[in-house]
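Before relying on records like the one below, remember that each one covers exactly one chain. Contacts with other chains, cofactors or solvent are not represented anywhere in the record.
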Amino acid sequence: MKKTLVFIILISIISCTSDKSKKGVITDYLPQEATLIIKSSNFSTLSSDIKNNGFLSKLSSLHLYDFFEKNLLYSKYLNPVSEVLISINTENDSTHHHTLITRAHPKLFILDSAQNKIVETLTYEGISLQRVTLDSNVVFTTTLDSVFIAGSSQKILERIIKKQQSQSSLNTDFETVYSTLGTSDFSVIINGDLVQKSLKNSVPEIDQLPRFSEWIAFDAEIQPGQLKLNGIAIAQDTLPQLLEVFKGTHPQQNQLAMVTPSSASGFISYTYDDFEVLKENLASFKNSSDTIANHKALFSSLNEIGVISIENKKVIALHAINGTITTDYLNPLLEETDVFRNIPIYKLNDSTLFQNYFSPLLNATPVVAAQLDDYFIFADQQSTLENIITEFLNETTVGNLPYYKEHMQQMSSESSVLLVALFPNFKNTFAEWTSDLSNEKIKQLKFGSHRMAAFQFVYDSHFAHFNGIIKETHNQSRGTGVTQLFAINLENELLSRPQFFNNHISKGKDIVVQDVTNKLHLISSSGKVLWSKQLDSEILGDVQQVDLLRNGKSQLAFSTKNTFYILDRNGKEVSPFPLNFKDAITQPLVVFDYDNNRNYRFVITQSNEVFMYDNK
């Protein structure tokens, strides 16, 4: 008897282990050498989120946007119930391919409604693949260990199959950054080295930039009027990476916006608290000896350095801890030549001062200089200095503008690196970096109420926090009346009037609406589509709001022609619902709460028959 029992237990363990091995972790199926990886926890609303974001929708004419639009046409036949990964691989430095990975289920990829389709079956290493042609678009699909994989390249799918058969493991650093991603609807992981290689044909200038980090991973909050990014960057490769220059330093307040004129296309600010540490890190990055010893006192008196871009000119800006002390150290290098609005203009005797000592952070070779309080400005033309002096004295520089302050309120007050792009001036600068194919399209972009974008890296222990913000900003006006909070475009026309739905988290109101394809949408008060759910037919009457669990968390109750639904605020069905009916429901759902104790009674009417249900 004991032997029999032991045998049964062993069989059970082996069986469970076998079943577990057949259910793969979807990250294990990512192709190697992926340049970019997108994770979506709510794939059904991803397209809507992007189209309704004021900034991202303006990029629809660009190649990257067009790439996703054309290559993911088949995604409208996808119905994933778990997270989706999309990786981008670059073959031969120019050809981009995508691979989509998600958990398989019986209703995941249904092509019944597709008009012009051809499905062919192929075989590789004993594994079945499908070559699916939808109109002129071709996608290859397969399922491995309950994981569905689709992509534009048959070779990449074959490499994934071979990788699984050889049980190759993922890059450890990739696993580290992937584990930091939250539960955001949209997340991105960038391979710092490969993204530079893949973009060098379309953005030739990028090939001249130093490697910044090994990986950048961030969660994105996409709303109609705002795109907010939060994540990390790591630089743990053996090759030099610019992020490591700030290792051991403490971020300081970024203040160069106060001397950045409104005509600039942007600026980049670097901060440090210990010049000795920065000096050693720069020498290590460049694999050179210490070359800054001659000006140790000068550079130790600073806590911020940076570059302001004005058209095709580069202006170097410094911020001193104490302007008087820095002036004393700079005097031997300066010679006064003119005065503008009571501000002395100096000739810089060593134009290679910053290029020699701070490359690659600072590469310009200025010849004139001016001091504005604790700021020191260096340019190649006096007229550029005069423009900055005028705006500084008039208090019209970028740091004084409402839209800059509004953006920076959502960023860390101190960072190691701050990059700011100022629209629309930046698009002309960026267009000059790109190939002729993209040049004109970028110049024609119209950003409207999107005035700027800001990105920052805050160095911590062995990694940096990464933040970004791009948001709409409008001129402030006084007065009363109706104010439009957002505008949103759904893929299809509305079937019903919008209804408000209480949000127990924000204490505000969300919006529920059905479109002509019978898809139900819940939209937040900021205009983000929280979820979309396909229903069997039109909702009869209004959507009712109930609280079945009596915990202050509301659900949506309604009926269609043959179904009685109750959904939670995440769009999930609440047990024991839905209830399906063979005969048609002829009247809207009626809800009674006799004693006002949330012990509901639900009334379903079918012609001359009436049925009453409780929540059990």
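Residues 1-21, 477-481 have pLDDT under 50 and may be disordered.
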